[in-house]
Amino acid sequence: MCLKTGMINWWLMGHFKFIEGGVPACGGLDAAGPLFNDKPPEHRLDPTDAQFVDVLHTDIDALGYRNPLGHIDFYANGGTDQPGCPKTIFSGGSYFKCDHQRSVMLFLDTVDRKCSSRAFPCSSYEDFLDGKCLNCDHFGEAGCPFFGYDVILWKDVLLKSTQAKYYLTTNKQSPFCRTNYKVDVMIWNKSERWGYITVKLYDGEKEAVATIDHKASEFRRFTETGLLAQFDRDIQSVKKVSIVFSTGQVLQPRRTLRILRVRLTHLEHKKALCRYDVLLQENTEVTFRPHPCEESQF
Fold first, then answer.
1. Domain final residue, candidates 105, 140, 168
2. Contacts of 87 (CB under 8 A, 6+ apart)
3. Are residue 45 and residue 154 in the same domain, yes or no?
4. What is the pLDDT of residues 179-237, one digit of tens each?
5. Is residue 205 part of a domain?
6. Global pTM?
7. What's the domain count of the chain?
8. Strand partners, 118
9. Pair (47, 155) in one structural domain
10. Residue 134: how many CB atoms within 10 A of its CB?
11. Contacts with 298 (C-beta within 8 Å, 6 or more apart), sequence order
């Protein structure tokens, strides 16, 4: 653990790793907020505590520390409410500790090699969800860092970088990692449309689901709308895709979304699948077979 005088309490959880030459690196698992907020670096976790310090934040609005503390700071699900954790005080003690304790479970998933989650540097969680922070060119061929035990592989680049917040989302149970796609939608409705999209991927036996509903997305004629879709599992060979469009408006007439092209790009292997001319009636699932994108058409 990365401990300093006065820091021994159960809110501060950490892990040790070792980098080249045996020089220790350490990590904070939702490092404590109470008693440590606004404290100077010598009285809390900070980048000088080891040659490389990585930190995970899962409860910044309660037991955890809000601001960056290490060379890289991961904010799972924005660092606040974790999927599957109780939302009301009527759930008892788990309401107070579930978000905080999730940090340990997320890290253990990476030790057990159950799955890996990339994290993306971004100025805010909202911008990340909007798909504005998916460029990983700064890290070369390695791409953006993986959260967890293997982040040490990115230390050389991170030690030269300024402190930043790295965002990822997770499932509500193990395996926690999600699969990221960029979804680009171009419509040919004459008037703009606002709404939410749910996408499902199928390989014949399994399905993966991504619901893009953190806010209503705007769709304009002949203008590509880029969305970040985070699926609950990885589908190796996508044979079918289904999409549902919803406005969330109960008292208004049902809308249609006339899609000229939808393109789904896997952010790991960069392969893109497309479908052209899809008519979506609001709240009605439409299933189709995708094809490799023909970029020359646009």
1. 168
2. 81, 95
3. yes
4. 999 999 999 999 999 999 999 999 988 999 999 999 999 999 999 999 999 999 999 89
5. yes
6. 0.89
7. 2
8. 146
9. yes
10. 16
11. 186, 261
